[in-house]
Amino acid sequence: MNFPESSENKKLIERLEKSVQDGRISHAYLFEASPNTDTMAFAKAFVKGILCPAELSPDGRGENCGRCELCSKIDHDNHEDILYIAKDGNSIKDEAIIAMQEHLKVKPVMDRNVTVIFDSGSMTLRAQNRLLKTLEEPLGNAVMILFAENMENLVDTIRSRCVKYRINSGTGKSSRKASNLRAKAADIVDMSLRGEPYYKIRSLIPMGKLSNEEAIKLLDEMELVYRNIIIDNSSEEVPLYDFDRLYDGIYTVEHTKNEIRSNVSVKYALGNLILKLDR
Questions:
Q1: Are residues 244 and 154 in the same domain?
Q2: Domain assignment of residue 51, given as a range
Q3: Alpha helices in 119-242 (DSSP H)
Q4: What is the pTM of this model?
Q5: Inside any domain, residue 130
């Protein structure tokens, strides 16, 4: 499929391509993505892969050929089978999910109705409960694709009914900086899970040089690392890690962020974090 070039998302794209090729398309997907991710471009690429049949493609290739009439309609936002939902003000309200349910009742022009929900974590609780009813009783071959900056903002019952993935993104200098921070966060989490001693983990963090904002960013990346491990761990027949330990790691990171926001010394808060992770 013709996804935007991204070395950071190579494995994710390969998984999505294989699921389309094998005809194993889920009725619901949840993608966690950072704010600078072009979720619209990603969504359109995936939807093309789901809807674009080989017989419509000029070269017979199909699966997001990027050249057929269907792909062109998706590019120009006028495909009859696709509904996009975004925030109205600060949230996605119940009315938007009602509109989605009506959309899914209409017989599709092709073989599937598709709904893409951006900023799904902003849904009101009432909207989430309404969406849950649709996830529990999906109509036909309908596909729902949700994007969220933090999937933890969705209720457990919605998350459990979706195939979950994490999208990495970014370009240029800011991306390299974010990539370095992500790599450092991954090293800290990895070393703590392997039971490395306190002083080795501590050596990865410039305790006295991080501002509050920089420390929070590092902790955000650590939290994402834990979530990615949980997602990967869930797909293994024999999980590599104990889930309780992974969720305890997320709780500890969240607690540390709250401490720093409450003006606890960064050096003290991060030192305490490492001690707790090293237990």
A1: no
A2: 7-167
A3: 125-136, 156-159, 172-193, 198-202, 212-234
A4: 0.62
A5: yes
Q: Do 119 and 18 reside in the same domain of the chain?
A: yes
Long-range contacts, stretch 37-41, CB < 8 angstroms, 24+ apart: 37/147, 37/167, 37/169, 38/4, 38/169, 39/118, 39/147, 39/167, 40/118, 41/4
CB 191 within 8 A of CB 200: yes
Tens digits of residue pLDDT in 195-220: 888 888 888 887 777 888 888 888 98
Query: What are the pLDDT digits (tens) for 116-140?
Result: 999 999 999 999 999 999 999 888 8
Distances (CA, A) of 50 to 1, 70, 148, 183: 10, 11, 20, 33
Are 27 and 91 in the same domain?
yes
Please check whether residues 121 and 219 belong to one and the same domain. no
Question: What residue has token string 């070395």?
Answer: 7
Residue 188 in any domain: the answer is: yes
Query: Six-digit token pair at 258?
Result: 């709250």
Q: Which whole number is the average pLDDT over 89-99?
A: 92
